[in-house]
Design goal:
Layout: E1 6-7, E2 12-13, E3 15-22, H1 33-54, E4 57-63, E5 67-74, H2 80-98, H3 102-105, E6 118-121, H4 127-135, H5 142-147, H6 157-161, E7 162-168, E8 175-181
Antiparallel strand pairs: 1-2, 3-5, 3-6, 4-5, 7-8
Helix pairs in contact: 1-2
């Protein structure tokens, strides 16, 4: 997908970001297909209602069990925090109207989403990577993940950096665990 520059009254350009945010308390409420569908529909409705005024366009939406990834484009003069307020506020209201029992899951609080979000602005060169990543959210990752197996023989960066070894204390002979850098 190619980013096309948009002409506004006094500017020409585009703002694009990859954003992700989680459900309050990181609860896995988006596992339910009805809730997932309602959240997606709410995002699209928000885009239709506010898209013309804000220049908001959802390029890709990926929904996982406890968080959402979105690649969004918006116009100048509108802060990203306003776009997030529109998306999160409308979707929370719609989900609570459609599924009132979810308030009990969230300890009768009035919030569906966590107040924080993470964003990464994207340019034309890395947009394709972000779109592909968001498109694959909620899907099994490779052969090992689909079979529920762990990969064997591969160390993560922490295991490579801090290998744990057992060695006895010099005087008592009891075993201790020691972390040392690679």
């Amino acid at each position: 997908m190619k980013i096309e520059k948009v002409s506004y009254s006094s500017s020409l350009g585009v703002q694009t970001a990859a954003v992700n945010f989680a459900i309050k308390y990181r609860k896995s409420l988006l596992v339910d297909p009805g809730v997932e569908k309602r959240v997606y529909e709410s995002f699209k409705e928000t885009e239709q209602v506010h898209g013309k005024r804000t220049g908001m366009k959802l390029l890709e939406v990926g929904i996982d069990q406890d968080h959402v990834h979105i690649v969004v484009q918006w116009g100048p003069g509108i802060p990203l925090s306003k776009i997030m307020q529109l998306l999160k506020g409308r979707s929370a209201r719609d989900v609570f109207e459609s599924f009132p029992k979810l308030r009990e899951e969230l300890y009768n609080k009035g919030y569906f989403w966590s107040p924080a979000y993470h964003f990464l602005t994207t340019g034309p060169s890395d947009l394709r990577h972000h779109l592909e990543y968001v498109r694959n959210q909620g899907k099994p990752k490779g052969r090992c993940a689909s079979e529920g197996q762990k990969r064997k023989g591969r160390l993560g960066w922490r295991q490579r950096r801090f290998r744990i070894r057992k060695r006895p204390f010099p005087k008592t002979g009891q075993m201790s665990f020691d972390a040392f850098g690679a």
